[in-house]
Amino acid sequence: MKLILPILLLLGLSANAQHKFTVFFDFDIAESNAASSQSLSKWITDNPLVRVQKIYGYTDKTGDSLYNHNLSERRTSYIYQKLKAENVNVDAAEQKGFGESRSTAIRNPNDRKVVIEYAIPEIQPVPAVTASTVQSKPDDNELSKQISSAKKGDKLLLKNLNFYNNEDVMLPSSVPVLKELLKMLKEHPNLKIQIQGHVCCEVENKLRLSRKRALAVYNFLVSKGISKKRLSYTSFGSTKPIYPLPEKTEAEMSANRRVEIEIIEN
Q1: CA 225 vs CA 46, 170, 180, 189, 238: distances in Å
Q2: Residues contacting residue 76 through CB under 8 Å, at least 6 positions apart
């Protein structure tokens, strides 16, 4: 008998999954304006897995064409550096400034921009996990007891929810605790949680990987019908390990590759 668990994994990029995001700039300025900076920050938070393919800069028709070309390249470079600093995947991104060559009017604010073209990973379910790989344990309902007695602000470790090293793929032993978390969210409709991702092994702060781990849990819960309004996710990289870095054993590394939840509302 098989136990189906459609844990969401990244299996590649869909050929049709190309998207665009536009950042706008004030006149003769190479840094994005306040409104666009705020929108860009939200876009980065909401899209931790994207792969940026192109970063194209533009200006309006005001002024010298050579100066405008240089300005568009500076805008492109600014966005590239900002994305890279936030651990967005820009490794293969093409950077190019078009100056005023594609502008529509003098001092048109819609021409002062950088367009980010990106691909969203295609998400598919993994094959079924056999029951033999997910044997029940006596403390499978431990999370239920903790959530039932928790109060706002409490942080709970999702015990036995662990990941393969340097991946956002969950170990098969994670199945029972995922099911228990889903069950508790369905039984407590007012419960809101923040999912917090962590990594092991590195002294440096690997926020991107820990964010992907939190997102894997988030996506699973959403796919099972839990409202996005009840869920959020964040990441701490390797800044809050259970065991000190560097870990001494594989068990310690596995424990540090974890996800916790914080009770936001119950």
Answers
A1: 19, 20, 15, 12, 31
A2: 55, 56, 57, 95, 96, 97, 114
Amino acid at site 257: R
Q: Which two tokens mark 254?
A: 């596995």
pLDDT confidence tier of residue 169, bands split at 50, 70 and 90: confident
Q: Which stretches of the chain are DSSP H helices?
A: 34-46, 65-85, 142-149, 175-187, 207-223, 250-256
pLDDT at 212 over 80: yes
Crossing angle, helix 142-149 and helix 175-187, to 10 degrees?
30
The predicted pLDDT at position 98 comes to 96
Q: Report, as an integer, the average pLDDT of 181-196.
A: 94
All residues at 6 or more sequence positions from 95 whose CB lies less than 8 Å from its CB, including other chains: 55, 73, 76, 77, 80
Kindly list the structural domains of the chain, giving each domain's residue range(s) and its CATH number in brackets, ordered by start. 9-123 (3.30.1330.60), 139-265 (3.30.1330.60)
Q: Which of 92, 94, 110 has its CA nearest to residue 102? A: 110
Do you know the residue count of the chain? 266
Nearest CA-CA partner of 26 in 59, 55, 51: 59
Return d(Cα 245, Cα 223) in angstroms, integer.
34
